C-alpha cells in the first residue's frame, strides 16, 4: 500500500499529494504539541492570576491534559475502525474546541484544569487518527519515512510555540493563547472537509461490537513486536514529558533564569530534534528501522549518563552551554527512535490500524505521562533529576528492546 490512494467509496476523491499529506498529518498531530508548548510561557501569569505559589503545581496543566489524552485514545480507535477516520477525527476536534472554549472563560485554576482535561479528551483523536490514516496508506520503511517527515514538521511547530505564546502575552492575556489553538482546530477541520477523503478500506471496516473490540485489543497486546515497541516508545515519551514539564523552571526561572530568552533556547533544541527526524527520513529506507532506532537508543543512554556525571560535577548547575549541548545530543537521538518505534509497533497490525493505534497510544502515553510526571515532579532547583531520569528510561528501553528482539539488536528489516 505504498501508493496512498483510497479505494471503494473514497475513490472519487484521491488523497492530496505527498507534501500536502505530510503537512496535514503533521499539523493535525501538531495541535497536541501546540496545546502544550505555547502555554509554557503563560505559567507565570496563570499562577499570578490564580494565586498559585508552588511552581511544580503548574506542571499539572500539562499532566492533566496528557492523562485525558492518553485515556481517551482507546475510544477513538474502535470508532474509527467502524465509522471511518474522517468523522471520528472531526468529532474529536469538536470536543477539543469545547474544552478550549472552557479554558478561555476559566475563572479559577480548578476550572482551568477541568478545561484542560476536556481538551485532552478531544486531542486524543488527532493522535490516533493520524497514525491510522498513515498506516492505511503506507507500510514498512515507507511508513517510517512518512512518520519521520510528519515528526519533523510536528517538532518544527513547537520551535515557535513558546515564542508565539510569549508574543500573545505581550499583546494580550493568557486567554488569547487558547483562542489561537481554537482557530487552528477550526482550520484543520476545514482542511479535512475540503481535501482529505476517507482512507479506511471498505474490507477493513468493522461493526462496532464489544466482542470485536476485545478481539482486536487482544491481537494488539499479544503481538510481541507491537507490545515491546509500544512499551519502549512509552519510555521515550516519558523523556519528552519530563523535559516539557520542567523546561520552564529549568530555563526561564529557577535554574538559568533566562526570562524572555526561554522561547529561543527551547526553540533551538526543538529545531535540532526536527533536523534529527529529517535525517531519519533520509536514512531509514537504506538502513532500516531497527538499526537506526537501536543505535540511537544506545547513544541516547550513554549521552544521558555522561550528562548526569557532568551535572553532578557542577552540583546540578552545569553551565548553560554545556547543559544545552548535552541535552540537545540526547534529544537528537530521541528523535531517531520515536518514529521508528511507532512504525515497528504498528507494522504487524495494519488490518486493525484504528484499534491498534488506540491501544498503542493509550499504553505508551500513560507510561510516558507517569514516568515523565515522576521525573518532572522531582525537580529540586537543579537539572539532575531530569538527566538521571533520562538515563534510567534509556536503560529500561534497551532492556525491553533486547527482550522484544530476543537479544538480536540492529537486525535487518524489509
Automatic annotation (TrEMBL):
Naturally occurring in which organism (per UniProt): Thalassospira profundimaris
PROSITE patterns documented for this protein: MFS (PS50850)
Full protein name: Bcr/CflA family efflux transporter
Membrane topology: Multi-pass membrane protein
The keyword Cell membrane appears for this protein: yes
Domain of life, per lineage: Bacteria
InterPro entries in UniProt: Efflux_drug-R_Bcr/CmlA (IPR004812), MFS (IPR011701), MFS_dom (IPR020846), MFS_trans_sf (IPR036259)
Family: Belongs to the major facilitator superfamily. Bcr/CmlA family.
Main location: membrane
Record lineage: Bacteria, Pseudomonadati, Pseudomonadota, Alphaproteobacteria, Rhodospirillales
Location of the protein in the cell: Cell inner membrane; Cell membrane
GO molecular function: xenobiotic transmembrane transporter activity
GO biological process, one term: xenobiotic detoxification by transmembrane export across the plasma membrane
Residues passing through the membrane, by range: 21-40, 60-76, 88-106, 112-134, 146-168, 174-194, 227-246, 258-283, 295-314, 320-337, 349-375, 387-404
Domain Major facilitator superfamily (MFS) profile: 21-406
Pfam families, A to Z: MFS_1
GO cellular component: plasma membrane
Keywords linked to the UniProt accession: Cell inner membrane, Cell membrane, Membrane, Transmembrane, Transmembrane helix, Transport
Transferase among keywords: no
Amino acid at each position: 500500500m505504498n501508493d496512498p490512494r483510497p479505494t471503494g467509496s473514497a475513490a472519487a476523491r484521491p488523497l492530496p499529494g505527498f507534501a500536502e499529506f505530510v503537512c496535514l498529518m503533521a499539523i493535525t498531530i501538531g495541535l497536541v504539541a501546540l496545546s502544550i508548548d505555547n502555554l509554557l510561557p503563560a505559567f507565570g501569569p496563570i499562577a499570578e492570576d490564580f494565586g498559585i505559589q508552588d511552581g511544580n503545581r503548574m506542571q499539572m496543566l500539562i499532566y492533566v491534559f496528557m492523562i485525558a489524552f492518553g485515556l481517551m485514545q482507546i475510544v477513538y480507535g474502535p470508532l474509527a475502525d467502524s465509522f471511518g477516520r474522517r468523522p471520528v477525527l472531526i468529532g474529536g476536534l469538536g470536543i477539543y474546541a469545547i474544552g478550549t472554549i472552557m479554558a478561555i472563560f476559566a475563572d479559577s485554576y480548578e476550572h482551568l484544569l477541568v478545561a484542560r482535561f476536556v481538551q485532552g479528551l478531544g486531542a486524543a483523536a488527532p493522535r490516533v487518527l493520524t497514525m491510522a490514516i498513515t498506516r492505511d496508506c503506507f507500510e514498512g520503511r515507507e511508513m517510517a519515512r512518512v512518520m519521520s517527515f510528519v515528526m519533523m514538521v510536528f517538532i518544527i511547530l513547537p520551535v515557535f510555540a513558546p515564542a508565539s505564546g510569549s508574543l500573545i502575552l505581550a499583546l494580550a492575556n493568557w486567554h488569547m493563547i487558547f483562542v489561537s489553538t481554537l482557530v487552528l482546530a477550526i482550520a484543520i477541520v476545514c482542511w479535512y472537509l475540503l481535501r482529505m477523503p476517507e482512507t479506511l478500506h471498505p474490507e477493513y471496516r468493522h461493526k462496532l461490537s464489544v466482542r470485536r473490540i476485545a478481539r482486536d485489543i487482544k491481537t494488539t497486546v499479544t503481538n510481541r513486536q507491537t507490545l515491546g515497541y509500544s512499551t519502549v516508545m512509552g519510555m521515550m515519551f516519558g523523556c519528552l514529558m519530563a523535559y516539557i514539564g520542567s523546561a520552564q523552571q529549568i530555563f526561564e526561572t529557577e535554574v538559568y533564569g533566562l526570562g524572555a530568552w526561554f522561547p529561543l533556547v527551547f526553540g533551538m533544541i526543538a529545531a535540532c530534534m526536527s533536523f534529527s527526524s529529517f535525517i531519519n527520513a533520509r536514512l531509514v529506507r537504506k538502513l532500516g528501522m531497527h538499526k537506526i532506532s537501536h543505535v540511537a537508543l544506545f547513544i541516547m543512554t550513554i549521552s544521558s549518563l555522561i550528562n548526569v556525571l557532568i551535572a553532578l560535577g557542577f552540583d546540578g548547575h552545569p553551565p548553560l552551554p554545556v547543559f544545552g549541548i548535552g541535552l540537545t545530543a540526547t534529544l537528537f537521538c530521541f528523535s531517531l527512535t520515536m518514529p521508528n518505534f511507532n512504525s515497528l509497533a504498528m507494522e504487524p497490525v495494519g488490518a486493525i490500524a484504528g484499534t491498534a493505534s488506540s491501544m498503542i497510544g493509550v499504553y505508551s502515553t500513560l507510561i510516558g505521562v507517569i514516568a515523565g510526571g515522576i521525573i518532572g515532579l522531582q525537580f529540586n532547583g537543579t537539572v539532575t533529576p531530569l538527566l538521571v531520569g533520562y538515563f534510567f528510561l534509556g536503560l529500561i528501553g534497551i532492556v525491553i528492546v533486547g527482550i522484544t528482539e530476543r537479544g538480536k539488536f540492529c537486525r535487518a528489516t524489509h
